Amino acid sequence: MTELCLHNFRNYRERVFYFGPGLHVITGPNGAGKTNLLEAIAYLSTGRSFRFHQDRDLVTVGHAAFRLRARLKEGNQGWEMEIIYHQGRKNLTINGNRHRVMDLLGLFPTVTFGPDDLYLVKGPPVIRRRFLDRELCQIDRSYCHHLMAYRRTLLQRNLLLKRIKKGEAGADQLEPWDHQLVAFGRPLVEKRQEVLDKLRVMADEFFRELAGGSSSLGLDYRPSVGPSEDWLKKLAEKRGKEIGAGASLLGPHRDDFTLAIGERSGRQYASQGEQRTLVLALKLAETAYFAEVLGFRPALLLDDVFSELDARRRRALIRVVAGEGQAFITTTQAEDIPPELGEKALVFSCGAEKGDAL
Q: From CA 323, how far away is CA 12, in angstroms rounded?
């Protein structure tokens, strides 16, 4: 990304930033809009907030719409994109032509890391499913298509289950929806299993380097129905419970994965520092995996990451941040950035009235 214009996005009424290759340090006091800027950058990857906020919450208070405009460059290719959100509708243009929001996927992939990512270890399963879906949609449009189709099928199947529970429909009407649930759901589970198997190996290497010991990282995928199981048979066995609940009880929407240190559950036994290291290792593995699949490194968005890392963990993170591609790091104190990185960085201030690098 070489240029980003924000209009009525969060606390930015009108602001333009000009970026270069390599590292960018975003400074400013708490509440100045550092994380909001990262949110805007990441929004251009998927058309959604990585903080899982609704689009209407991203609009500056007192206004009805926001606009993000960006210039992007990868190798010899360059393009300009603009996203306008207005009263529940999003319009995307790329090089002046109208596109679906899905067409963003793969153009400008990002990997984010911030304080809320600790919930990947200690939070509910829905947080981990959102993580998987957001990351996989950026690099695999087929996955995204299957995910959207699965969600539509799940919605209709749940509505039918509620009608059956009320006696307004027969259980035999579930059969075609069962087949659709399997057709769209199985590819999701297979892809999640494939990617998590690869991330497990990569994340374990990063974890050993970050933790500086012999402890290993465990990453265990727990699908509600395995990719090799007979899904239709499982659904038939759950039929009575699903009708009683008025909801689908099997499928990718019930999946989870766990992070552990050795044999110890990260959620139950890891300290906050250990949980942070687990998540950071997972994010670095994600960065490496994206680079392997795409042939270039995604943009790294790191929200106040260095302030809570000791020297060893900083060195391990520096190895990734100092590589090719763009990285954006927020901090309240520029001194928190290691000197070997700070000397090469473009520095921005979110407290200034106008944009541009300082």
A: 30
